[in-house]
Amino acid sequence: MKEYSSCRPRNCGIDRNSTTGYCREKSSLHVARASLHMWEEPCISGSNGSGTVFFSGCNMGCVFCQNRAISRGEAGKTITWERLSEIFFELQDLGANNINLVTGDMFIPTIVRAIDSARQQGIKIPFLFNTSSYLNVDSVKMLDGLIDIYLPDFKYIREEDSVRYSNAPGYPNAAKDAIQEMVHQQPDCFFSDERKAKRKASENDRLSTPVYQGNQKIIQKGVIVRHLLMPGMLIQAKLIVKYLHEHYGDNIYLSLMSQYTTVDGLSSFPEIDRKVTNAEYKSLVEYATGIGVENGFVQEGEAAGESFIPEFDLRGV
Asked: How far apart are alpha carbons 147 and 144 in whole angstroms?
């Protein structure tokens, strides 16, 4: 496809029709799993589950990455955009509350084609774009009119940290611009009652009891910005919350996450080779409520000790 001839998400300028980009992917669609996922925010997963499609590759280089099997392109199957569109309907038939496109940043032109086809065929549930926010604004604009819900990360507001821990120069400004465009497209959050699923999620869909059970209000449109609190970065986290609240107020929801988990290979980064403390996370939540944040989600208990990552076993692909 011509859209991949000068790749834009990371502004590499690489022709991915013939060459592998920084993301470790060419232009062919590479998918590692498609299934119901119960561990998203309550208004996303609800009781039925979120219909997640995990794409392979990543345009960042986080030293603490939990999804290395897919971010490095080691897991996944090459499929066509027509097959992706079929997967959307299969997830809808399972009772999914939404189609959750996880790290699809590298495949936006192909995803656009698959969504457009599904829309023309009458798919009924909303589309959600789950992204690192390390995106060129033009890439986000390609999704205008197709994505109902944006779920962007805001990882860093300090340039030095984005370079050191994620090899992502320019991330703070890229994330600010990308989120601004997302809010421009979906300026308000709308919710509805969860519909009755055709069947209950099986143990194969989630290896343990879902975090969120019971009747939920399910988001249909809007923007939820996630921030994962990292060890020793409480001030940065507060600056991010402050920035988002000052710019968007209650038009967006914030999701403050405490689930940071260490991985092998962090010997060169000892300052982040530990869990976030309860005191650090409590301070962040208290700061957010103290400045007037009302629309948001927090994590309770030992989130860092639980698995939020499924097996990338080609299920549903």
From this structure: 6
User: CA-CA distance, 265 to 293, in Å (whole number)?
Assistant: 36
* pTM for this model (two decimals): 0.92
SS3 of 80, please?
coil
CA atoms within 13 A on the CB side of 162: 21
CA 266 → CA 166, 238, 262, distances in Å?
A: 13, 25, 8
3-state secondary structure of 190: strand
What is the DSSP pairing of strand 29-37 with strand 50-55?
antiparallel
> Burial letters for 292-311: b for 16+ Cβ neighbours within 10 Å, e otherwise?
ebeebbbbeeebbeeebebe
Q: Which residues contact 306 (CB under 8 A, 6 or more apart)?
A: 208, 259
Q: Is 289 helix (H, G, I), strand (E, B) or coil?
A: helix
What tens digit of pLDDT does each residue of 138-158 get? Answer: 999 999 999 999 999 999 999
Secondary structure E strands in the chain: 29-37, 50-55, 77-79, 99-102, 127-131, 149-152, 190-193, 217-228, 253-257, 296-298
Burial class (CB in 10 A: 0-12, 13-18, 19+), 139: buried
Measured distance CA(14)–CA(261) in Å, rounded: 33
CA separation for the pair 175, 132 (Å, rounded): 8
For 58-87, the pLDDT digits (tens) are 999 999 998 877 887 777 899 999 999 999
Nearest Cα neighbor of 259 from 87, 40, 112, 12 is 40
177 neighbors 263 (Cβ within 8 angstroms): no
Of 150, 158, 156, nearest in space to 178 by CA: 150
Q: Are the C-beta atoms of 262 and 64 separated by less than 8 Å? A: yes
Q: Tell me how far apart the alpha carbons of residues 250 and 188 are, in angstroms, rounded to a whole number.
A: 9
